[in-house]
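In keeping with the milestone schedule agreed at the kick-off meeting, the structural modelling team has produced records for the first pair of proteins. Each record is given below as a sequence line and a structure-token line. The laboratory manager (R.T.) confirmed that both were archived under the project's standard naming scheme.
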Amino acid sequence: MKNILLILLLSWSLGLFSQEKKYWEEGLLNWSDFQKPTISHDPVSSFEYRLNYKAQYTKIDDTRLNRYMADAYMIKTSSSIEEENRTWQYLKYYQLVFNLLEIERRALQEDLYLTRARYASQVVQEHRIRLKNTLEDLAQDTDKGNHVAALYLWENKIAALLEHYAPVQTLPALRKSHFAYGLVLGLGSSIYTGSVNDYFSPGILINFGFNISYKDFTFFAILMAGNNKVVQDYKKWEDWHIGGVAMADLSIGYPIFDGPKHKLTPFIGYGFSEFSRTDVKNEENNLRMIDPNWLIGLAFDYKLIKTIDTYRIKQYKETLLRFRLSMIKTDFSPDLQGYTLNFTIGFGNLGTLVKIPRKK
């Protein structure tokens, strides 16, 4: 008995995984798509299908799309029709059924874009019920394909609906928020001019940046930290001692170019430069110089990846490399002045919340 149950379970499993599917994009139906053999106690015909969804990552053009994808197909191995009923009316009728399945899949795709993840299963069930009701109306109006005039009326109606709903391989329309946000982490170097260059070597810096955008304006908050060396004695700063460097600034920028892959943004702001040296053995020997001043600069973004995420937080993201050049006046004392040129290369993510409007 156990062996028989095992064989039945195995046969059922093989049948489940051996289902042969047909998707709407593969072309019009033909009689070879109805692969289930008919026997005397079966109905005259059957058209089996599935309407579901799954999480999917795909790439369309130059944009990554994370979404719940509506999935619909005919199950060929479970669909059948008797030989004597294989007429052009029946084939047209089942083609209309197949077209309605595709329309419902496209409508479901739009609703999945608008739906929060936890409601996705509920939305799919609603579309299954709606499709079932529509197919019942089609069967009743056309007498399951026997009423030719009604078939043509439904054919025109369905053709208009197919044109109304966009195919799956298109990016959803987005309504972006006016606000955007981002983080950038990178490395860079500072080069000094004037008398500052006479006493201190260029600094190696770690760069951390945060920016908020409103429409086309971007507000940058930058923090850089690293070290440099004293190249000759300056007051209590002794030759070849390693000191700390810290720089921070707040600035506002407006892009002069923003293309699909590149963005160029000049900015102006206010920041400070700090040189310091810490003596852990004797705090009295700690040294610190700080100077606030205006700065100008230029940020160049190279957009590596664009991503639309629709099944978690609905947002548009850009992963980028940022090249940033800034110049700030350094005026520590009358005999220690110049300009500091900061150049950094950073890797970052910028994002903005989006809404996906319902298609009219």
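The second protein of the pair:
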Amino acid sequence: MSKLKSFGGLDHSSYPLLSVTSFAAVSFVLGGAPPQMGWAFGVMSLVASAMLYYTIWNGSWKKFQELPIVFRLAAIGPVIIGIIQLTPLPDVISSASDASLVRSLIFQYTGVVHSWNVISLAPLDTLLSVIIAIFMLILFVAILGLNDVDVKRLIYFILFLVSVGAVVGVAQFLIRSPILKFHDISHDASLIGFFANKNHMAISLVAAWILALGLVNGGAHRKSKSKYSILVIFAIVLPLVFATNSRAGLFLLIMSGFFIALKSFGKNRILLILGAVGISLISLVAIYYIPAVRLIAARFGGATEDGRWLIFERSVQLVDHSWPFGTGLASYAKVFKSYERLEWVGPQFVNNAHNDYLEYIIEGGILSAVNLAFFAFALLNLSLCAKKMSQGDKKNKGSDLFLANVGIIFLFCFHSFVDYPLRRPASAVIFVVACAISCRFMLALINKLPKNVSMQRS
């Protein structure tokens, strides 16, 4: 394919990175709320189209084909599931679940009971979900095709986006003004930035702190510098996560900080113990004197009374009704509403199951379960590769960054047990970037193996 001419002082080789960063910026700024057909979605579509063009031109799809088959299936799984659910199929398949029974009864009275229908009970919502999944797949493939320098620039850009979101959130919090809000906000009393949900803002901050540590420690030549950076970055992120008023965010920040400290200070347990005692004392003082901290502490105490646990218990019942082919991606809210009992009705609208694994299985049935199994297998392999890389070459600057990105994947996986971060483009972008960078490291490690070993990846 002919080379692209330079434009505006940019070399043609910069266009793939420019398309990736543009899509990341648009998704992060405009994708903090549930996806909807509108001008924001139109902007995302235009930028994604440009990213697809440069991905094809850059040969990134060849890199995607180098991934093990399980990795590829895990990546394209949501797209395949959505397409199947939007494809007209015989009535014996499209109406196999109890959730489709009402539709079948209606068709009996319209004379089309034996016609072919789609599995999804919310086709438009499923279509939008599939399109977003295609965008994220293109982003994943595009990152695989970038060179190492551009990947490092992309990491800096992601950190920049999260930092801008934090600054916007602080400004919103201080002046109590809806500046740069492109959607309806439900958590006005919290620091949320471009997000519509405080938990998603918190998870982006925690992911950024892990990514920043991987970047800084990967270039640190002295262990003292590495330990110093941990304290500095943690001191910056901690008050921001507190301001989000997110229990999940605070818990994941503390847990990630504990494991990072254990890895960095493991051989000097006295410092680790003194640090833990110091943090505990500071926390007790903060709980006593700072109202916002007392509020979060009270929310931890009332965790068992959180409405999401009731939603989870009630959502489990939908699995039997939606099995084996699901109700359609992004159909949960409508399906739950149709099965909602009178005694369940309350002032709050139930839009998600607050357990993304459960919700994914309700919507995708057995296909979603298989997709999750593929993803779990891929994540296990990435973890083993990251561990091998960090132990095999202590001087390898990339091992810390590899571990950091795998840690971010686990971060989103843990959060998905109590929330739905991957259903928002703004937070999904961070997850996809971490997955793509981790796969790049894995491919680099595989390519270093002997040919008779590396060929086993397919």
